[in-house]
Amino acid sequence: MQTSGGFTKLAEEVIARCRKLATFSEDAGGTRRTFLSAPRILIGSHLDTVPNAGAFDGILGVILAIGLVKSLDGSQLPFAIEVIGFSEEEGVRFGIPFIGSRALVGRVDEELLGRKDERGISVRKAIQDFGLNPNEIPRAALRDDVLGYIEFHIEQGPVLENLGWPLGIVEAIVGQNRLEFTFYGQSNHAGTTPMNLRHDALAAAAEWIVAVESLARRAPGIVATVGFVEAKPGAMNVIAGEVRTTLDIRHASDGARTEALDELIRLAESIAARRGVSAKWRTLLAQHAVAMDPFLTEQIDHAVQTAGCEPHRMASGAGHDAMILAERVPAAMIFLRTPGGLSHDPAESVHLDDVAKALECGNHLLTQLAASQEFLGRTCRA
Ligand SMILES: [Zn+2]
């Protein structure tokens, strides 16, 4: 067992390595696996990030996993640990996220392999250029010897910092809907059309946008965002005849999300009708929430407390590889406080003490799992 000074020293190594790798080429990555015969736990995260990013999104979870193995100091466990660095989690290069983790759940198909980046290079070609054989991807699919997947990741938000706690236990990754709403009114002369004879699509959209915000503020856990508005014809002296806008709505519970979404659709229709405008909408994305494994989550809760931290449970507002892995194996996530809530930015950082706490928590977790007959008796849901 490491001393707390030992975890701090390991944390220093983890942070230094993340910073060093931040200067590494964007083409690095790829899922190199060896096939082990012992039942195993997967620990990891992703290696890629977005342009102009910081040093910790994703890669911290990979380097921290290596630090965690080091913290075991050679002690024997009844399972193997496989550290994984996933490629293409963000979807920046090919416009499709989670390519590495999809390979592990058997969801890389010909259509995905044929996707091309801006330079016209397909996923298949990129894998070949990296020195790997795309035809072997099916072999990466998980079999029934995997006991679970654990991912450490920076929170990428302000919640833990606001609470003053270093670690968060992810209970679920939120589900989300993305929709496009279009309000159809009548464009007309801004000077000659009296206020009571207008069908202003932009005023209708504006009223609805404020209603979106106020509903989300009232409904616990809902986050809803209108991030895009386009008014036509878009002239200073013309009443807007058509407005296209978007909605992004998320919640850890599918029921709560669907209920709020239905209400927002009703509101769009009623606000439009009252103003003599019509509203149409279409779904661009509908993704259900993904619960983390309750047993692993409970074990993490215990490990976090043993490490002397508050076991704060929370939902992840962003998608992660754990969401994909959860299709096939018990998956769980631990968040680290993100200073300033700042991520996907060069200023992204972590506190040394938080990384040390995460290592300590991970070390306790592995010790607990090694002693748990319930855990060792589990197999993959394949
Ligand atoms: Zn990430």
Summary tags:
binds zinc ion, seven-stranded mixed β-sheet, 14 strands, 382 residues, 22% strand, five-stranded antiparallel β-sheet, 12 helices
What does the secondary structure layout of this molecule look like, with pairings?
Layout: H1 4-21, E1 40-46, H2 59-71, E2 80-86, H3 99-104, H4 110-114, H5 123-129, E3 146-154, H6 159-163, E4 167-173, E5 175-184, E6 188-189, H7 201-218, E7 223-225, E8 229-232, E9 238-239, E10 242-251, H8 254-274, E11 278-287, E12 290-291, H9 294-306, E13 312-316, H10 321-325, E14 331-336, H11 352-370, H12 373-376
Parallel strand pairs: 1-2, 1-3, 3-14, 4-13
Antiparallel strand pairs: 4-12, 4-14, 5-10, 5-11, 6-9, 7-10, 8-10
Helix pairs in contact: 1-2, 1-11, 2-11, 7-8, 9-11
Residues 46, 57-58, 89, 153 line the site of zinc ion.
The ligands found in this model are:
zinc ion
Distance between the termini: 34 Å
Count of separate DSSP helical elements: 12
Element string (H = helix, E = strand): HEHEHHHEHEEEHEEEEHEEHEHEHH
Count the E strands. 14
Largest sheet: 7 strands, mixed
Mean pLDDT: 93
Query: Judging from the principal axes of the Cα atoms, what is the shape?
Result: elongated
Residue windows where pLDDT falls under 50 for at least 5 positions: 25-35
- How large, in whole angstroms, is the Cα Rg? 24 Å
Q: Determine the structural class based on helices, strands and strand pairing.
A: alpha/beta
How much helical structure, as a percent, in the residues? Answer: 25-40%
